[in-house]
Amino acid sequence: MSEQISRLDAGTSEKTVFSVEDLTVTVGTRRGPARAVAGVSWQVRAGETFALVGESGSGKSMTLLAATGLAPRAATVTGRVRLLDSELTALPDDRRRKLRGRHVGFVFQDPMTSLNPVLPVGRQVTEAAEEHLGLTRRAARDRAVELLELVGIPSAAQRVDAFPHQFSGGMRQRVVIAMALACEPDLLIADEPTTALDVTTQAQIVELVADLQQRLGTAVVWVTHDLGVVAGIADTVAVMYGGRIVEQGPVDAVFDTPTHPYTRALLAARPDPARRGEDLVAIPGAPPSPLDLPPGCAFWPRCPVRADPRCEHELPPLTPVGPGHTVRTFYPGETS
Ligand SMILES: Nc1ncnc2c1ncn2[C@@H]1O[C@H](COP(=O)(O)OP(=O)(O)OP(=O)(O)O)[C@@H](O)[C@H]1O
Ligand SMILES: [Mg+2]
User: Fold this and answer.
1) Residue 278 · residue 258 · CB < 8 Å
2) Which of 20, 62, 77, 289 to mutate to test the pocket of ligand 1 (most atoms within 8 A of CB)?
3) Which pLDDT does position 275 carry in this prediction?
4) Which of 17, 59, 191, 234 could form a disulfide with 37 if both were Cys (CB 3.0 to 4.6 A apart)?
5) CB half-sphere exposure, 94, CA atoms < 13 A
6) Is 285 helix (H, G, I), strand (E, B) or coil?
7) What one-character DSSP code corresponds to residue 286?
8) For the whole model, what pTM was predicted?
9) Is residue 318 part of a domain?
10) In this protein, which residues make up the domain named ABC transporter (predicted)?
11) What is the whole-number distance in angstroms between the Cα of residue 24 and the centre of ligand 2?
C-alpha cells in the first residue's frame, strides 16, 4: 500500500471531521412546504462511525444531502455544517463543491448511479483524484490498480480497463468504494450501500469499509435500515423519525437501554435469527407525511405508551438519559 493511503496517525481520532448543528430542510412542493428535516444535530470524529437509522421517509438521505450541499433546488436549508475547519454553510457553491470533492467520498445504494457505463472502471476510480491530487494519467492508472486491489477486486491489473457491466453487483459496489476513497477522503458517506446486494456480499462490504476505516482513520456516516449492521460497526447511532432525531447515543447504550418508544419498537421489529419463521413485530400505522406533521411528538399517533397528555400538542425536549445519550420524549425515566 502506498504511503498516501496508510496515513492513520496517532491523535486523529480526537478530531471532529463533520458536524451538523440544528439542520432544517424544508422542500417546496406543489402541495405546500414539506419539512423533511428539523433541528438535527450530530457530529462524527476521525476513525469513528456514525449510523443514521429510521423508517423510509424519516429524513436520513435528505439530512446528508443538505449537509453536504446536495439538497434539491426546491429545498431551503438552515443550520450550521462544519467540515474539518470550514463552515460549509457559509461558503459559496464552488468553494463548497471543491471541499466536498477533496474531503468527502460518497457511496450510494445502487452502484450504477455512480458509475458511467461507457468508461473503463479504472478511469472512473481516479477521475476526480487526477484533478484534486494533480496526478498524471499514468500515475492515475497505477493508483486505480492499487485502489481496486485495496477493495478486494481480484486481478485488478487486468480488470482496470474493464467496463462496469463486466462486474457483478458486489464488485461494482467495491469499485464505487474505491472511487470514494481515491481522493483519500476524511469523511465517507455511505447511504444504504449494501441494500441492493445479497447477504454474503453485504457482509463483505461492511467488513471492507470497517477495515479501510481502521487503516485510514476515515470518519464514516452510514445510513441503513439494518440494525444488525449498526450494532456491528457504529460507535454512535441516531434514530430519526418524522425528520427529527428522537434518540441518539453510543450504540451500546441505545441498544441496551432504548428509551424512546419508537426506538424500542424499531428494535422489537428487528428480525431475530433465533425466531426465524415467526412473524415480524411490525410497527402498526404509517410514518407521518412531512407535509402534515403533528404539532407534538411525531410518533404520538402510533405510540403504544402515550403516557403524557402533552405528547399530542407539545414537542418533547431532547433530554439526556446517560453519557452522550439523549432522547426526545416527555418520560425518559419511565422506560421499562
Ligand atoms: N426531491 C424531493 N422533493 C420533495 N420531497 C422530498 C424530496 N426528496 C425527499 N423528499 C421527502 O423528504 C422526506 C425525507 O426523505 P429522505 O429521502 O430523506 O428519507 P430517507 O429516510 O432517506 O428514506 P429511505 O429509507 O426510503 O431512503 C420524505 O418525506 C420525502 O418524501
Ligand atoms: Mg434514503
Assistant:
1) no
2) 62
3) 58
4) 59
5) 0
6) coil
7) -
8) 0.90
9) yes
10) 18-267
11) 16
